[in-house]
Amino acid sequence: MSPDYENSWLTLNGRLRQLERVSGLGAALRELECHHLNNGFLTDTLWQVESRSFSDPDHPERFFRAQYNPRRAHRFRGAGRTLAADLPAHGCFLCRDTIELQQQGAQLGYRIESGKRVFFALTNPFPVLPGHIVVASEEHRTQEWGFRDPSGVAVEELVEDLVLLSARMPEYVGFYNGIGGGCSIPEHLHYQFVTRPGGVAAFPLELAARSGRGKNADASMLIRHYPVEAVVWTGSTDLVVTCASDWLTAWARRNGTRLDDLSANFVATGDGCGDRVSLYFVPRRRSQSRLRGVGGVAGALEVLGEVVLADPDAGTRLRDGSINYFSLQSALESLHIPLEPA
Questions:
Q1: Contact at 8 Å (CB) between 205 and 223?
Q2: % helix / strand / coil in the chain, to the nearest 5?
Q3: What pLDDT does residue 99 have?
Q4: Is the pLDDT of residue 212 over 70?
Q5: Across the chain, where does the E strand assignment appear?
Q6: Phi/psi of residue 180, each to 5°?
Q7: DSSP letters of 72-122?
Q8: What digits encode the pLDDT tens for the residues 34-43?
Q9: Separation of alpha carbons 125 and 176, rounded Å
Q10: What CA–CA distance (Å, rounded) separates 308 from 234?
Q11: Phi/psi at 320 (nearest 5 deg)?
Q12: How far, in Å, CA of 123 to CA of 127, rounded?
């Protein structure tokens, strides 16, 4: 790192750290976003996005949302002031040396310690919802999960990361996209956090969880009446980390013969009451990364019920009625995979 860049990073971090002590991690991340809006790094304020909600005619309480977000189509090129061809050999958009060179000092991150690990919070230049933050591992390591690759992130670590971070920022929704499950940068471990869109107190998956009945002895609850199979754990951070890690380890043993084609989406939310959190798990086929029928890469936000479309004709289809509740339901059903092997 150049001395000027390092000093800028440290100065901003000192200011954000003081704000976090007073008002919490969420406040520090909002200030990080303001910093990047003010210095011109962050230019996408979602003004181009068109969003619509679609309700089930027979069950109005059930709905899905779709958004046309044209700028998302450019995210794989990166957003910067230096061309990708001039970046370091690894070209990872989440490594500090690449960030410094690509953004020419405009993008700074906020250092976060969580458990035994260190992350950098970065504003996402291609947001899907307000307050879109990427929380990237300080270490350059794979996004792959340990069930498939021993060098990948262990499920206990993955669960603990999401749960502890979400408990510290309850105004955000956190998620992990596995490889083949919506992950844009598979080479570098990262999580994403967004705030809820205006008028949406709960996403469709969360509403489906609330309509469930009872829990198993391990605190897991199967979510029913939803296009994909999912499991949710709710409780204190310690309870959720322990129960979810144990359940997922046993689940992986039962699914050993098909793990090579399995990935996952995880979603975590805090409720602002102490350390109470909810953690959702949705298994995914690595070979089924797109939503059939409506198009678009499917990640955790899509399994939550918020479908992001970036193809040029998506705006037209959203306006002319080609996309509706049932087409979105069918698209999500195309991601369905049984939790248990046949």
A1: yes
A2: 35, 25, 40
A3: 87
A4: no
A5: 50-56, 59-68, 110-114, 117-123, 133-137, 172-177, 190-195, 220-223, 230-236, 262-270, 276-285, 306-309
A6: 85, 0
A7: GGGGGG--SSS-GGGS-TT--TTSHHHHHHHHTT----EEEEETTEEEEEE
A8: 999 999 999 8
A9: 18
A10: 27
A11: -90, 5
A12: 8
Q: Are 289 and 334 in contact (CB under 8 A)?
A: no
Distance CA 214, CA 130 (A): 33
What is the helix (H) or strand (E) element at residue 36, kind and residue range?
A: helix 25-38
Residues with Cβ < 8 Å from 141, sequence gap 6 or more?
A: 151, 153, 188, 189
Q: Which amino acid is at 215?
A: K
Classify residue 276 by its DSSP letter.
E
Answer yes or no: is pLDDT of 182 > 60.
yes
- Evaluate whether 245 touches 256 at the Cβ level (below 8 Å): no
Residue closest to 199 by CA, chosen among 45, 63, 59: 63
Name which of 62-71, 268-277, 296-305 the model is least confident about. 268-277
Write out pLDDT tens, residues 104-157: 888 999 999 998 899 999 999 999 999 999 999 999 999 999 998 889 999 999
**CA pair distance 32, 25, nearest whole angstrom:** 11
- Tell me the mean pLDDT in the region 274-299: 92
The more confidently predicted of residues 198 and 192 is: 192
Picking from 134, 144, 81, 128, the residue whose alpha carbon sits closest to that of residue 112 is: 134
Are the beta carbons of 247 and 231 closer than 8 angstroms?
A: yes
Q: What is the dihedral of CA 161, 162, 165, 171, to 10 degrees?
A: 170
